[in-house]
What we know:
110 residues; 77% helix; single chain; 4 helices; mainly alpha
Amino acid sequence: xIFIKTTALFFITAIMEILGCYLTYLxxxxxxxxxxxxxxxxxxxxxxxxxxxxxxxxGRVYAAYGGVYIFxxxxxxxxxxxxxxxxxxxxxAFVALTGMAIIMFAPKAT
Length: 110
């Protein structure tokens, strides 16, 4: 159960970070409304808060989260940007997810 909860929390966290950054990107580079900065800021605040919900050392959480972020960014590339990932993108994303699993779920000395 802890595996599912931790992994789901990482995925939600990644989506919040990517969404906040993407909305800011739309404003800065695509000439979209500055009103996008309100949901962007809320999304980034949610991202920071979600990272605090993990019951382990912050450094370990940040390191493992990076792997999920990479996977979600490649998924975003495909679904939002409409660019199909290469085989290398997918391999890299799955390697990153494997790294997350090793960091978070390997036995730890107490």
